[in-house]
Amino acid sequence: MTSYSDDSHVEIQIEDAPDKNKNKKILEIVCSPNLNHVAALHEDNHISLWSIVNQENFLANVKTIHIDNIRTTEKIFAISDNKQLSISLDRINPYNFIIFDFESDKEVSLTFPDWQKEIDFLYFIENGNIIMVNTKYYRAYVFSSKGKDNITWVCKSMIELQYFKKIYITSKGNLMIFIDTIHEIAMWDIEDLTVKTRILLEWNHILKHIEISDDEELLSVCTENKKLKETNLYVFSTETGINLSSHTIKGAIDRIHLIASQKGERLLFINFSEKRYNLVDPYYLNNPIDASKLFEHKQIQEACIIQSDTIIYTIDGKVLIEKLVRDNWVEYLRKELKDTNSITTPSKMTIDIITKIIKDSSYYTYKDEYEGKFLKWSLELSNESVKLIAIPLNSSIKKQLEILPSFKLDGKNFILHCEILENDDFITITRIGIIIWTYSKNSKNSDIKIHYYWNDWNNHLEDFVLEQKKFEDYLYGFKDWTPGRILPVSSYETIYNNLDVKFGEKELFKEFLKNSVEEEFYLTCYGKHLMKTLIELKNDKWIRHLGQSCINKCIQDNTHLISKISLLSIVFENFDKLSENHPQFIASTLSKIGFVVPSTIVNPKSTSSHLSSYGRYYQLYNTSFLDILTSSLWNHWINFQKRFQFNFQKFQISNLCDRDNNTTILAIPIPNFVSYPKKYNFWKELLLPSPNPFTYTNNVEVINEEFYRYLNGEALLKFKWNTFGRKYYLAIWAIYTVFLLSFIIAASCYNNISQTNLFILLKITICFGIWHLIFELRQFIFEPLNYMSSSWNILDLVAIISTTATSIYWIKNGSAPTWAITFSSLFLEIRFIIFLRPNRYFGVYLALIMKTVDKVISFLIIFGLFALALAHSLHLMLGSESEKSQNLNTDMYTRFGSAIVVSYYMMLTGDKNPLSSFILNENENIMIMLLMIIISFFMLIYLMNLFIGILSYLIGISDSHLAYLALKGEIIEEIELFYMLPHQRRKENWFPFVIFYECQIIKLREHINCIQQSWTGYKKPFISKALKEVLILPEEQPSLEQIEKTIKYLSDKQIKDIGELKKSIEDMKKTN
């Protein structure tokens, strides 16, 4: 026996005869990321290394070491593909773990940039790097090997994680972080610090297990509802974050695993105490199959490892490895395990068959029958009919379907090629496209139906002629497709254009489109593609059907399901087009999700304000030197924070105990509503920023008002304003104030300051004027029409351009016209007043003013044109008389410009003095009197009163609160798009996936009561069962329509029951 020790007094003994420990009990085993090695921890602190390379069944013990001071609880235990072992130790210096290299028999030394001594999680990943996490400071470290000897390691990156409840590290190096405050799992890329997906869980569930597939495209989650004593299984797509399927079972689950991703994927869930092993299709999660046969003759314990379709377990101090997924996996499922459930994920063999069929130009004749693992398919062909028949093996059931379209008469030549796939689906190459048929066994009525259809003809199939071309030329979806978890999306545009085509008595394309809209598999996997296709086809009916299907999946038992909220991304990822072309549909959708209550728990002693943000949102970032310095003070800060929080809460309870400040949590269930596209070009984004759904709400007035009728809109604005809005706005206001003051001081005090100081002020004005002008120009480039349609944008331009131009002229010529200085100052000061609009005290009235001005701008133009006509009439009639007279009152009509000013003055004030001189001089001139009558009646009485009436009407129908919120939304939109840098718009803590907020019960109840009594929006909001429970609302009385439906249902049921009773009596008479 040899030994090795370092300066930290850790003694590592290397066993010369590793087999001497073969009968010692193994407490725990771990395997390397690529399944090359296994490390086993024995009960006497021995650690053995087992090699998997070229080994079968019993593994060979390569080497065994002994370490005395191994930590017994919450320990790190990991092995790399390069035979490097890591395990926790009961020590502090230099850190609380050791990395031992089995190849060189040396300890690996690490240097932490922040002098870290405690690591809670350590994992070797596939690329050879080490990821470590400290939970005290919420910090992650990535180490990589510097030399070929794998002894020298350097810290590649150090990352601030912020708060989390649980953390998982995948073999590909992704971090999966669970935050219990908002019940969210986020998957982060450790390399570029971007979030790959976000997953929401039900708030009344406790997270138990997380399992990710080998390719990290599927995520399985197991949660527990202790109140109902239920265990819930969920499967999510890591690409979209959408919940693909869910299932609830009674009893506990100890382990979950996703297996056989390349052969016929299944989710395995295990209960060791009950020795219960079940398999289920992860895309459906129904009808679990008993999989006990898989584990026959295996002494499986909780210490076993299931990875890459293999199982590693221990017996009597030995480590064994076996294939869990056999080569003939599908056949084993069908025949041995009697698993006839669907196999959604295509196996490699299935993908090879489909790819070969598509690329092969020489199709061969079909057979009469095609027998699979549990189904037998056959075809019956004639000139006028093609019948597809499916017969389950060992069953008398026979299903057949006419598959020849009505416009194709040559049935014998309709099928070009067909073949049965490994999952028992049936693929046919026909004259109208490639169709995969499936036998729907799990539905109420087992039947044959279309599973996929490909032919990107995108027109009526009556005009489609295959001729000599291959189908590959018509399958655009396959050109960029790489074989993966699911097959490419079906050709929905071609299907839509042929909905009326009949196959016998059935409209199979219409049935398939309906299934794609309603069935969860198609909806979750292809819903986004389908929605985009329907939007392009501008079919409001199917768009509404698809959107309603998404909402129906999110609402069960009259309660919103948080775990299903991601489905709404199908709708809101197309928010811009839907809000513009289908605003009623968006308004209807908003009414269904206006009040989403994730939990019925009420906080009776909340100190939060109404509509304040709830939970923690975070953005991973590289650790700075400042973070390292502040972390040394972290312990003191935490202790101080705890003491302060305790004393503060004690003070609040003692002083606010008489106040009713009960709060509940609500969600804004619109996924990625405030998020921006992750991929972007910096310079393009700087000039022409990519909008998000939130910025589109301000473009459509109907949607804008509807969105802010709900508390969600106000809570969202409050979150944005408190998070970043007010900081940016105050900075913008401060810069504008400098711009304003520099010009105002120059204009007011130019006689009292030196020429040098005056020019300094003017140059400052010019610099800030150009700065403001750049941002105005960017806004104009972004949306020219919307920008020019706002009178306040014109005011901004006039104020900036006039001030800047006047300053330039002043510097160039040494002076400037008084009128230019005056009007520039006027516009600047008006714009400064408008900066008060985010403050509710001023903003309510400024919003009404700004909204009203934009609506009456066309009337003001007409008003001005009438004034111009009046001025021209006065100039023609009185101009000649004014030239003869030297009176100042008459001289003003000699020039057309002054006549315009006089006309506007008379129209606004009603003063007739400018015309009185002509009446006196001309001895009651009849024509002038007539002109005065026209002015008095039409311009002063009619138009001015009409203008006042229009203003009163617009103000009367406007909701000042909604107008204020919409105005504040425009301010925040402007800040996001034009004042933030592109990378700032991608900060996850500023633009979260879904936002939660705290709402005071009293104010929420008042809001709901107002809705129930009088609702002015598009559609009355949906009040869920959870919300009624939180607010203790009485049950609504059924409407007259609902009563009539109930009466009709009961009467029809009675008639039916009477008919059945009569039939039974007649049968009894016949029998007797």
Automatic annotation (TrEMBL):
Full protein name: Transient receptor potential cation channel subfamily a member 1-like
A molecular-function term among this protein's GO annotations: monoatomic ion channel activity
InterPro entries: Ion_trans_dom (IPR005821), TRPV (IPR024862)
SUPFAM superfamilies: DPP6 N-terminal domain-like (SSF82171)
Membrane topology (UniProt): Multi-pass membrane protein
Coiled-coil ranges (or none): none
Transmembrane domains' residue ranges: 728-750, 757-774, 818-836, 856-880, 928-955
Pfam families to which the protein is assigned, alphabetical: Ion_trans
Residues covered by the Ion transport domain: 733-952
Keywords, alphabetical: Membrane, Receptor, Repeat, Transmembrane, Transmembrane helix
Keyword Repeat carried by entry: yes
GO CC terms: plasma membrane
Signal peptide start and end residues: none
Locations listed in the record: Membrane
Biological process terms in GO annotation: calcium ion import across plasma membrane
